[in-house]
Amino acid sequence: MLPGSNGKTKAGYYYRCFSASDYSLLFSSYNFRSGKAGYLFFSEEETLPHVTIKLRKSFPLTGKIDIVDNVRKTLQGVVTRGRKFYDHDEQLIGRFADATSWKEHFGESAFDALGQLIFGFGDADSTGSNSNKFGLILGSQPAGQLRREKLPFYPDPPTRTGPTATGKMMKKFLPKKIGSALFDNAPPSGWKLEVHKDSMPKDINLLLIATLMTIEINRW
């Protein structure tokens, strides 16, 4: 749940984006599919969003999502349902290409479904049958990748140091991968963006926003 402008909570997703030293971007989604806007903050302490992200009225036909700079009150760029992103003049900058094979899709779906069938719930961050790898293409050249993997650190202190007694017992009767995923105290998974140094675009913030929207759309 996310705080609304009236102090009440709203349903949505909350993203924290980490640089090498600390997180520098925050993003909250207020159900784009209902036509409501999403907001992006460049600091956790900020109360007013720096960027508004909203589906165009023509979204059902064009798949376009506007990225609006709230400080300048101008269009910063456009991203699309097809994972392309454009500058403020709607000139194509690049896109994220699905790099997950059909076999990987099937395996991830089966694993997630099995966990939900046995325990009645799944990982809230699971991508299910969606992709967990994308190639970044800027212009017409490969420029990096976006992939889902375990974080190398805990963003929040763990509540326990290992599986409970019940967890240890249940792990004995489960396949190793499922048992570890459910009961081991391991860092959560997240998305990692890697960009070749000589391929970095001029508007890095727009690239980061396009990355966040690629992750968001991947949930739809």
Helix-strand pattern: EEEEEEHEEEEHEEHHEH
- What is the spatial order of strands in the main beta sheet? 3-4-5-6-7-8-9-10-11-12-13
Mean pLDDT: 75
Which stretches are low in confidence, meaning pLDDT under 50 for 5 or more residues running? 1-7, 113-129
Let me know the number of strands: 13
* Main sheet attributes: strand count, strand direction, barrel closure: 11 strands, antiparallel
| Fraction of residues in H or I helices | 10-25%
Key structural traits:
Porin; two-stranded antiparallel ribbon; single chain; 220 residues; disordered N terminus; 24% helix; 2 domains; alpha+beta; 13 strands; globular
Task: Set out the fold topology.
Blueprint: E1 2-3, E2 9-10, E3 13-18, E4 23-29, E5 38-41, E6 51-55, H1 59-62, E7 64-69, E8 74-80, E9 84-86, E10 92-98, H2 102-119, E11 133-138, E12 141-150, H3 165-171, H4 176-183, E13 189-195, H5 204-219
Helix pairs in contact: 3-4
